[in-house]
Structures are given as C-alpha cells and as structure tokens.
Fold this sequence. Notes:
This protein is of the alpha+beta class.
Amino acid sequence: MKNLQHSTKQSGAVLFISLIILLIMTLLGITGMQTTILEEKMAGNYRDQTIAFQAAESTLRDAEKDIRSSRISGLTGMTSTCTSGLCYNGGNDIPNIWDDSAKVANAVDYGTHTGIGNLPGVTSQPKYLIVGVPFIAAGAAQPKDAYIITAIAEGGTSSAKSILQTVYSPN
C-alpha cells in the first residue's frame, strides 16, 4: 500500500512538457505549410507570366510574317484609325496604343492573317497592332517602310499580361 500512495502524488510534469513540445511542433508545421503555399503561388505566377511573355513573342513573329505577306504593301492602306490591325501615324510619336480602346478593338488576333493555329495555355488569344512609319536610314535618299509592332498577351490567368513592342523593317 505504501507504493500506491506515493504514485497518487505525481505532479504531471511530463504531460505539461509533452503539451509544450506538441504546441511547438504544431507551430513549426503551420509555418512550414504557409511557406510552401506562398512558394507554390509564386511559382504559379511566374509560370503564368512566362506563358504570357512567350505568347507575346510568338505574336510579334506572327505580325512579322503578316508584314512579309502580300496583305501589306508598304504603308498604303494604313490609316490613323487602325483598320484590321494596321495603323499609320505619318512619323509622329507613337502613343501608347493600348490606352486607346478604339485602336485596341481593331487589333488582330494571333494567326488571323497567317493561318497559324491558336496558342495553347493562354486565357485568350494574343493580339497585335502594326503601326507603319516612314523611316529614313542614314545616307539614304528615299524613306524605307518600317513598322512598329505591339503585341499583348495573357498567360494562364487574365492577370498575367505581357506587352512587347518591336520595330521591324523587311527591306
């Protein structure tokens, strides 16, 4: 009976220490999960932005192919109102055309004039505008035709956008 009386006087220190260790492990697990979730979101956003950038690059190449086709003959047929994705500004400064909703409405979808199929993995097909500008090269007597191509593309989500612009002269 003497041993039985001694065991009833335990203070429960092991239980208290076990609960403290369990609490610390839970906090470490929650922190680790939050870090992993954040890294997953960052990787997904990077992937979406990369898809948008690659789609915009492909759209620039598609526009260059469009310029080399027989549809575009120099700067003729280009107007300041941008018809069928073709604009003309007469050598003035190029405004940010994506701020002009009327011009954006006339942008051309990727593959419209080249017959290239749709791009996979994007929320909507990329668009481009071609702005014709006369260009006089150093030492040249006659102006050459130059084109400022602006492409806009979305990635895997509509919040991941990429806008690229290049100057292209086929001659």
